[in-house]
Structures are given as structure tokens and as C-alpha cells.
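Step 1: inspect the first sequence and its C-alpha cells.
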Amino acid sequence: MIANASPTTERRGVRILLIAISVAFLLFFVVLPLITVFIEALRPGLGAYFGALRDRDTASAIRLTLFIAAISVPANLVFGVAASWAIAKFDFKGKSFLTTLIDLPFSVSPVTSGLIYVLIFGAQGYLGPWLAAHDIHIIFAVPGIVLATIFVTFPFVARELIPIMQEQGTGEEEAAVSLGASGWQVFFRVTLPNVKWALLYGVLLCNARAMGEFGAVSVVSGHVRGKTNTMPLQIEILYNEYASQAAFAVASLLALLALVTLAVKTFLEWRYAGEIAAQRRH
């Protein structure tokens, strides 16, 4: 007979070794690079730091990054909720295929997705001549960046919601319908409150990825200074031009935005720990 050993009964030395490996890994690959970015950005002083951020092209890149996130995140919010609701609450043909498609951006290189949009909407693409005839610009313009960002970020909300919705089942929705609730009443008063924390996590992750996306945006943007450069692209340009301090200044701002997102997520987990645990046990 084989006894079931609990992982919490491991020897003290094993636990210390596992914790030490985890902490050392995070310090070397996460914390140290972040600290280095801020040190290099602030090394010449605050005047030079804020001067780099006030540069006309850099300011334009910051505005464009926030603008792209403001469009792509709500779009992914609507898609993620609709797709998750359909997959988790209804049975239909092709559900497995739809679930696989949602995971596609995780397995396809962002550069490849950018090239796909160029192939479709570019000057020599399938729709290029028609778009040119109607004076519609998608590639090397803001619409192309929006499309590429939506593509690489659309799994984040759906992937947070689908497992929880499937685990919760349809019992409460069926009870609400039996009491006379309409479809929208069931959604807003039963389904949505049960997944609100997972939805918020998905939105935060989607927003962080939207602001930091580089590969797909690099392909479709055309790197037009002051017009189609987002913050990651502006960092690359500044670094290639040996403007290292300015590049680190923009990188530190991008890292700061990501840290704010992480801080919000951590605060919510701490503030509403009991409610979140209850929702996951639902």
C-alpha cells in the first residue's frame, strides 16, 4: 500500500530550497531588470527624464498607446463576455472549434499576425486596391494598429471567464428563467455578478498586453514618427539612435503602467479576498 504524502509535509530543507530557487529566479529575471530600467532612466536627473518624455514624438507615442488601449480593451471586453457566455452556457456545433480559435493568438507569433493583416489590407493585399480606390488607409495607419492589437489581446478576457463559467454551470440561470426572468435580466443579475472578478482580471491583463505589444504593431505601423509609433516602437527607435537615456525613460514609463496594473490587481485580491474565494468555490 502506498501512503499519500502531502506536499506540506516535505522536509524543511526541501521547502527552503524550493522557496530559494523561486525567489532567486524572480529576482534575477524580473526584479533586477526592472530596477535597472529605472536606474538608467533617472541617472541623468529628473530634468532630463521629464524632458525625454516631453519630446514631441515620444509624447505622440504615449498618446497613441493609450488611445489604442482605450479601443482594443473595450472591444475585447465585449467579445470575451459574449464568447464565454456562449461557450460556457450553451451547447452548439463547433463549440470546440470556437474555443480553439480563441487560443490561436497564444500560439501564433505576433509578427505573423501582423503579416496576415498586411496580406489582407496592404497595398498589394487582397483588399488593397479597393481600399486605395476609396481612400481608406489601414496598414501603416492607426486602424491597422488597432486591428493587430485586438488580435493579439482577445484571448485574455475570454480565457479568464470560460473556466469559471463552466465550473459554475447553468443552475442559477435556469432557476432565474423558471421565475420569469428575461435573457438580459439573467445575464446582468445572475451571470455577470458571478464572474465580475475574473472579468476584471481579464481586462487588466488585456490592457497591460495592449500597451506593451510590439511584434504585430511593428509590422503594420510603418514606424512613422509622431503618427504610428507606439511606446514600444519609440523605445526601439531611441535605442537604435543611441539615445539610451530617452529610451530608458520611455521604458520606465511603460514599466510603471504595467506595475500600476499589477498593483490594482493585488489590491483587489487583498481587499476582496473573501468574496473572490467564495466566487471560485461557487
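Step 2: inspect the second sequence and its C-alpha cells, then contrast the two.
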Amino acid sequence: MSIANQEVSKIAHLARLGIDEQDTPAYAQSLSAILELVEQMNQVDTADVEPMAHPQDAVQRLRDDEVRETDQREHFQGIAPLTEAGLYLVPKVIE
């Protein structure tokens, strides 16, 4: 499938892209090459190919999910200006 220069100009207009008239044949050739590649890819028989989530057989290493920090709630509430029932009290800023 090839794209004509007029189609490139129309696509550029619809996409609100400003391209020079002298560059239109190069864009038409590049877009035609892309469409030919897509046509070639569509002709490949993939019936026996199992769908994959990733093209490489990669596994992400994860660290163990374990608690590393100690509970410092009492310490932080001890240095807070105002606390009540385990909550931090802050000044009212919206009337």
C-alpha cells in the first residue's frame, strides 16, 4: 500500500501538522514503507505462537516483604505540639 502526496497533505492537515510541500514526497515514501512493513507482519502465521506478556524470559527479583523499621509513634507524638487520642492536632486553617 502506498500513500500519495495528497493523502500526506490531508493527514498533516487533520493532525494540524505543518509540513513543507517539498517534504511531502519523503513523508509519503516513509509512510508507505511503514504500511508495507505492517502488511508483511500481518501475513506472518502466528497461529502456533503462544501469547506472551514480555518478549524475553525475564523475572523480576523482589526483596522479602518484612518490616525493617521499628514503631516510633510514641516518640514522634512525644515531640509533637498537640496530640489527643493518638492523633496529631493541628490549627484550623479553613473557617
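Step 3: confirm your contrast with the notes below.
The CA atoms of residues 77 and 84 lie 9 Å apart. The chain has a mean pLDDT of 92.
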